[in-house]
Amino acid sequence: MVKKPIMVFLHGGGVSSWMWQEQIEKFKEAYDCYTPDLIGHGTRANEKSFSMRESAGEIISWIEQHAQGRIVILIGFSLGAQIAVDVLSREPDIADIAVINSALVRPLPWLYWMVRPILPLTYPLLKKEWFIQLQAEKLGIPSQALGNYTADSKQLQKETLLTMFQENLHYKLPHTFQQAKARILVTVGEKEKGIMKRSAKKITHAHPKAEGFIVPGIGHTFTFEKKELFTDMIKSFIEERALPAELKEI
């Protein structure tokens, strides 16, 4: 009996594995789907503070333990996309296909030092229903997932928030990324900030088997706002078919 390919989904910062529920429903028949909660998030909110390196190490260990010669597809969004980049950079043979959605790889240390004093002051807002609702609307989170998003916001620890911002805004593309063996698809929202588009371009140009695309009409919300397009794009890329026509090549 041929075992299914493995599909690993890595969520964004401040949310957890529930963000991939609809994608899992689409892919679970053909793939073994793995959707971990990253360190400091979701079911692991009280475990310890977030660490990019430790998170990547956990994913590498899990894949090495479970792949057993199977095709591995790595899919990351935002913070999870940075971790996916790190996984590919540390272990070039670990995945066959990777989808990198909205990954920041151009460091903004000045922004971190600017917002760091403010974060402890704004942290209490993450526990307020009205603020959570505003953030959910901004991110395009569907109403049926609001309960999960609310729970994640209320459980997020202050130290995790600080560490997450620090690592996110200091992250830069490792020089070993170009050695990854995977075919790589890079996406960024048309309405995202310029630094995100430049990051997507940098990732695309840094790897010989990377293709980069801009998703029209959206910001940092691809996986929530255009779920069908997201799914169609992944299926097409895996099967090496033409990607949906509405995507704009970087």
UniProtKB/TrEMBL annotation:
Xref: InterPro entries: AB_hydrolase_1, AB_hydrolase_fold, Carboxylesterase_BioH
Hydrolase among keywords: yes
Keyword entries, A-Z: Hydrolase
Segments forming domain AB hydrolase-1: 7-225
Molecular function (Gene Ontology), one example: hydrolase activity
Protein name: Alpha/beta hydrolase
Annotated source species: Bacillus xiamenensis
Record lineage: Bacteria, Bacillati, Bacillota, Bacilli, Bacillales
